[in-house]
Amino acid sequence: MIKSKPLFLKPKAPLWLAATGVLMLIAAPLKAAIIGQMPSFSEVLYITSEPCTAESGRIEPNWYFSYSVNALGTVTRSCYVRYNDQIWIKGPFGAESTFPMSYFTKPAGASKSEESSEVRQ
CA–CA separation, 66 vs 36, rounded Å? Predict the structure, then answer.
């Protein structure tokens, strides 16, 4: 009789790849210079100076990386564009939101070196 390994012990490549992708999404926001933050419902929304990339890897002109962190620590990636005094955010599933720039404040730990990297349009 040939004994096979139980299904839960067999290596799952897609699960490993998914876990790596989640770790990369969590680590990615830590590299971008945060230029503003805003409490929004049960989340905190951050806007950064890092250019946003499409799923194909192409850098989107005039769009920048933003993300939100909920109370459980889950990070959701999005992109935004600044138009006049408005921030237009496009979420991961196509949902769009608009907020006045005045709603965003500098993070308490922002250094003077980050001030020069602020997005100007």
Answer: 10
Residue with tokens 């939101």: 97
CA separation for the pair 82, 86 (Å, rounded): 6
The 3-state DSSP class for residue 19 equals helix
Residue 60 exposure: Cα atoms within 13 Å on the Cβ side: 15
| pTM, to two decimals | 0.61
Q: Which residue has the tokens 């096979």?
A: 4
**Alpha carbon of residue 104 to chain centroid:** 16
Laid out side by side, the sheet with 86-90 consists of 34-40, 43-53, 59-70, 75-83, 86-90, 96-100
CA angle 72, 73, 74 (to 5 degrees): 95
Q: pLDDT tens, 48-92?
A: 999 998 878 899 899 999 999 998 999 999 999 998 889 999 987
